[in-house]
Amino acid sequence: MRDNNNASDGDLFIAWALYLAAEQWDNRNYANASSSIRRAIVDELVTDMAGYTVLLPGIEGFKHSDTADLNLSYWFVPAMQDFAEMAPEEPWQALIDDGVSLLDETTFGHYRLPTDWVTLTADGVVSPAEEWEPRFSFDAVRIPLYFAWGGRDEGASIGSITAFWNDPAYQPASAWINVTTDERAEYPISRGVRAINAFANNQALPDPVPKEEDDYYSATLLLLTHMADDMR
């Protein structure tokens, strides 16, 4: 089914790519396009809830009267950092800081892991979102990459994630785990996720050339992680 909603992480990537291109080639058109997307994100997708500045995953369906459904893997911290430096009057630094604070609240289950989707209530309670499976899964695996890439991996959740991946009792690590029931995927994390684990632990990354075993998502994570490593 076609989804007419936007995805705020994709918007951040586009705005950041245009910003970097404008810097590289001194191109005003790229800079103006980046600025236009950035302003739209701030106007339509950044909101306040329970004293936090948060990024809605899309324009429609995530902000409710007394709750907000959030996905912390949408916090693409490197882009937010550049935007914060360029436009300190805009809420980018607050987004980064509150994202780190929220991440410390999203520690569920035996391994104290964030779930892909969480709900933040008006009184500041964070819990796994009811409309999604309570899993640390294909979305949340990006959190260590984006927060470590931005140098904001000081929170407890990042260490909990790598501890889960490196637990010697369960190797190779499972692709996902239900934080409520401890049910695990019957297949392992991909090479792309293994690259994120290596990056978060300051270890050598897997070969960046995609292999036959890599699906598009694994290949994308692998290349993004090498990009992060080159820019670190």
Automatic annotation (TrEMBL):
Keywords: Carbohydrate metabolism, Cellulose degradation, Glycosidase, Hydrolase, Polysaccharide degradation. The keyword Hydrolase applies. Its EC number is 3.2.1.4. It catalyses: Endohydrolysis of (1->4)-beta-D-glucosidic linkages in cellulose, lichenin and cereal beta-D-glucans. It is an enzyme of class 3 (hydrolase). InterPro entries: 6-hairpin_glycosidase_sf, 6hp_glycosidase-like_sf, Glyco_hydro_8. Belongs to the glycosyl hydrolase 8 (cellulase D) family. This is cellulase.
